[in-house]
Amino acid sequence: MIKGVIFDNDGVLVDTEGLSRKSWIIFFKKYNLGLRYFDIKGTIGVTTKERIKFINKKYKRNFDANKHSNEKEQIYKKISKNRIKVFSGIKKLIKDLKYNHIKIAVASSGTKSKIRFNLGGFLKKFNAIVSCEDITRGKPSPKIFLKAAKKLHLKPSECIVIEDAIKGVVAAKKAGMKCIAVTNTFSRNELKGADLIVNNLKKINYDIIKRL
User: Fold this and answer.
1) Could you list the pLDDT tens digit for every one of the 212 residues in the chain?
2) Which of 32, 61, 172, 209 is found 20 to 30 A from 100 (Cα to Cα)?
3) Within 13 Å and on the Cβ side, how many CA atoms surround 80?
4) For residue 140, is the peptide bond before it cis, meaning its omega torsion is within 30 degrees of 0?
5) Kindly report the CA angle at 178 between 150 and 48, in degrees rounded to 5?
6) What is the domain extent for residue 50?
7) How far apart (Å, rounded) are the C-alpha atoms in residues 62 and 39?
8) Where are any strands of DSSP class E within 126-193?
């Protein structure tokens, strides 16, 4: 029986993938990397530090994972101020889950600072928050979702994950959880590992979730 829902943040709760993409492009240009966002699209879902390490390895750079991750986050915050919107259907879904006594958590590859920046006062709706600072390995490792379940005081089998990224879907399944994937970032075919794939969350409610 499902007792908890774990939400990814970027691309699920808030419409930020375009802003994230733009911030990476600005970062690339600053350091004359000659990269496009497409070159790192396969890393969507991992932490910024892991993306920096990926760039270092693949493109033979020597960025400092801590320093340059923080720099990229500051670029993101600067261009995103007052531009972040919660996806349509999210507030209604959360209200429905709360009414049915379902615990909810955010499990994001971003930092706590970025999660707070993205969600603002809406963050208080959640029973638990897990960020990249709470784990040693990011998605597709299941650690972030297992940590969220633990914070909710639930078994993995009692939780369902809502994701938009391929690595997030893989992480959810590795954690032993059902997964709803929303096609805000990847195609249906790319997200085929999920238990349910939807174009948006407007029609998702407690009745649908409990039947998965």
Assistant:
1) 999 999 999 999 999 999 999 999 999 999 999 999 989 988 999 999 999 999 999 999 999 999 999 999 999 999 999 999 999 999 999 999 999 999 999 999 999 999 999 999 999 999 999 999 999 999 999 999 999 999 999 999 999 999 999 999 999 999 999 999 999 999 999 999 999 999 999 999 999 999 99
2) 172
3) 28
4) yes
5) 65
6) 17-80
7) 17
8) 128-130, 159-163, 178-182
User: Which are the catalytic amino acids?
Assistant: 8, 10
For tokens 């349910």, the residue is 196
Residue 188 and residue 107 share a domain: yes
Per the document, the length of the chain is 212
Amino acid at site 197? I
Euclidean distance between CA atoms 35 and 27, whole angstroms: 10
pTM to 2 decimals?
Answer: 0.96
How many domains are contained in the chain? 2
Secondary structure (3-state) at 163? strand
Please report how many Cα atoms fall inside a 13 Å half-sphere around the Cα of residue 205, on the Cβ side: 7
Among residues 139, 135, 148, the alpha carbon closest in space to that of 170 is found at 139
Examine the fold and report which residue of 29, 45, 80 is the final residue of a domain before the chain moves on.
Answer: 80
141 lies in the same domain as 159: yes
**Those residues with Cβ within 8 angstroms of residue 121's Cβ, 6 or more apart along the chain or in another chain:** none
Angle among Cα 132, 87, 135 to the nearest 5 degrees reads: 10
DSSP-assigned letter for residue 14:
B
Same structural domain for residues 42 and 121?
Answer: no
